[in-house]
Amino acid sequence: MAAADPPPPTAERLGALLATGWLGRAYEWHDVCASTNDLAAERARAGAPAGLVIAADAQTGGRGRLGRSWHSPAGENIYFSLLLRPSRPAVEIPPLTLLAGAAIARAVAALGVSPRLKWPNDVQLVDGDDRRRKLAGVLTEMASAGARVEHVVVGVGINVNADVAAFPADLAGRATSLRAALGRPIDRAALLAGVLNAFEPLYDDFERRGPVAAVAAFATYAALPTRCRVDERLEGVALGVDPDGALRLRDDAGRIHRVISGEVQP
Asked: Strands, DSSP E only, in 2-131?
């Protein structure tokens, strides 16, 4: 008999699994919402404290980087947003995306898979043919006044128990899920707790040391060096990530480029 899917990550279930001091101690679980990032930003404007986590079983308006929609069906995956109020200046915030990827990688590696981080915001799994498929994505959004950060929302979507055969055509062959990789259902509450338990100490280190802490965490799982192209305008070998989070790429003429943003493809 196939194993039954574990129940959803309600506040009671999550609270029993958390080892954090402040992250996730304020928590909202929604059966459905438009976007957990939008809800978290709304709570932030109303004065909610740092550490609030908002999670949903389904999103009707989930989104990723560059305005893309995020496939967010009910009952399978986990979609959540973290509300942060960092003391670092606004210019240092983008590497939080790298840090979030590292926290996800730590949490899923504990389940027995091999995560790799694609700059700047994708968590991938390596299959038996050494092909990498997307497991999770991160979307970081900031509200600031000049150099001062008012709040940051880090949104995460993880394909947990999704049936890869049911993925939309644009995801088929490019995405995967933990259930597909491990052959068993995964407890979303335990996974969410694992991510939060990994994120809090990394973030505390980021608050002390700045972007270098995020870059160091990212480097542990980074899929680098690798040959790639960026937005059809640059091609070469991605060598690593600079201390401020920029991707360092060497083109075929030997010139070094710093990539601040862009879409990286094989």
From this structure: 27-30, 53-56, 78-84, 115-118, 122-126
Query: Do the beta carbons of residue 252 and residue 266 sit within 8 Å?
Result: no
- Residue in the block written with tokens 């590696």: 109
Q: For residue 234, what are its two tokens?
A: 């640059």
Amino acid identity for residue 137 in this structure: G
Please give the C-alpha separations between residue 130 and each of 124, 181, 195, in angstroms, as whole numbers.
11, 13, 25
Q: CA separation (Å) from 107 to 101, 142, 164, 242?
A: 10, 25, 21, 25
Distance CA 180, CA 164 (A): 7
Hey, is 23 helix, strand or coil?
coil
Q: Residue 146: which residues within 8 A CB-CB, separation 6 or more? A: 90
Name the one residue in this structure whose structure tokens are 């644009």.
170
Cβ-contact 136, 192 below 8 angstroms: no
Eight-class DSSP state of 166? G
Enumerate the β-bridge partners of residue 125: 115, 133
- For the entire predicted model, the pTM comes to 0.92
Dump pLDDT digits (tens) for 147-189: 899 999 999 999 999 888 777 766 667 899 999 999 999 999 9
Tell me if 28 sits within 8 A of 39, measured CB to CB. Answer: yes
Q: How far is residue 221 from each of residues 102, 180, 189, measured CA to CA in Å?
A: 7, 21, 23
Q: Is 165 exposed, middle or buried (0-12, 13-18, 19+ CB in 10 A)?
A: exposed
In whole angstroms, give the CA distance from residue 104 to residue 14: 16
3-state SS assignment for residue 76: coil
